[in-house]
């Protein structure tokens, strides 16, 4: 006897945002969607699509352990493009601890760039994109970090180690310009809560028709998947409870002070 499928309580056109990391990995971590990933990388880093197509490889999300007792570390997405390794992390917290964790992950990735007997000058690029989903509508849209000097010139020590911290909420308030349009559109798509928002931002500016249709289909399919929705629902409940506890703690401290 077939088990009755649970009805997913989403309104017509409503979707689970791609910014929910499990959903993000289901789309961007699949080889069947490599064309979507290629377009994203091309648009974000402004690399000609001809140089990207057929050259992106999805690597294991499991970072090697330094010792037997060390817990395994799993990242959201790791790509290889030529001599570049690109780590993409979905972050629902911009806390100092989360930033440090992502920094450790990128440092591990960078250390693996050097193969046995290689010259250090030949070490590849290690880039990280932090898609910060914390609600911060004020502030800068993208901050790019390198290792730099502390003088006025801010000389870059090495361009091979780079972190781009993206404020997804901020992307909602930015007007397009020639240099940021595609980046803004992608960030709005990743943060979108409805099919219509994704269709609007895709327009005819991003990807080809086939890849645009595939992305929409994947998002709708995953949003109606019981496993994806159950994880999303549990996460959302946890986040609401956490925010409620924080609010109550703030209220209590305020009352005690007054």
In short:
The chain is of the alpha/beta class and 258 residues long.
Number of strands: 8
Number of helices: 8
User: Low-confidence runs (pLDDT<50, min 5 residues)?
Assistant: 240-258
The helical percent reads 40-55%
Please specify the SSE layout and strand pairing:
Layout: H1 21-28, H2 34-45, H3 49-52, E1 56-58, E2 62-63, E3 73-74, E4 77-81, E5 84-91, H4 96-111, E6 125-132, E7 142-148, E8 156-167, H5 181-191, H6 195-202, H7 209-223, H8 226-257
Parallel strand pairs: 5-6, 6-8
Antiparallel strand pairs: 1-4, 2-3, 4-5, 7-8
Note down, in words, how this protein is organized.
- It contains eight helices and eight strands.
- Helix content is 41%, strand content 18%.
- Strand 4 (77-81) and strand 5 (84-91) form a beta hairpin.
- By secondary structure, it is an alpha/beta fold.
- The strands form two sheets. It has a six-stranded mixed sheet with strand order 1-4-5-6-8-7, with helices on both faces.
Key features?
258 residues; 8 strands; alpha/beta
């Amino acid at each position: 006897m077939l088990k009755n499928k649970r009805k997913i309580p989403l309104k017509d056109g409503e979707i689970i945002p791609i910014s929910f990391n499990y959903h993000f990995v289901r789309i961007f971590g699949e080889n069947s969607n490599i064309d979507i990933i290629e377009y994203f990388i091309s648009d974000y880093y402004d690399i000609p699509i001809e140089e990207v197509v057929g050259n992106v490889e999805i690597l294991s999300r499991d970072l090697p352990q330094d010792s037997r007792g060390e817990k395994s570390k799993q990242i959201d997405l790791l790509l290889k493009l030529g001599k570049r390794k690109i780590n993409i992390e979905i972050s629902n917290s911009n806390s100092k601890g989360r930033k440090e964790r992502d920094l450790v992950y990128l440092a591990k990735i960078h250390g693996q760039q050097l193969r046995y007997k290689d010259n250090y000058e030949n070490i590849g690029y290690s880039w990280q994109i932090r898609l910060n989903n914390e609600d911060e509508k004020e502030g800068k849209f993208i901050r790019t970090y390198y290792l730099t000097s502390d003088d006025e010139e801010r000389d870059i020590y090495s361009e091979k180690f780079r972190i781009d911290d993206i404020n997804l909420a901020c992307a909602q308030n930015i007007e397009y310009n020639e240099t940021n349009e595609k980046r803004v559109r992608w960030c709005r798509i990743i943060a979108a809560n409805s099919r219509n928002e994704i269709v609007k931002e895709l327009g005819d500016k991003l990807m080809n028709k086939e890849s645009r249709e595939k992305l929409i289909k994947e998002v709708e399919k995953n949003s109606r998947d019981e496993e994806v929705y159950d994880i999303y629902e549990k996460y959302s409940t946890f986040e609401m409870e956490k925010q409620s506890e924080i609010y109550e703690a703030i209220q209590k401290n305020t009352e005690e002070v007054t």
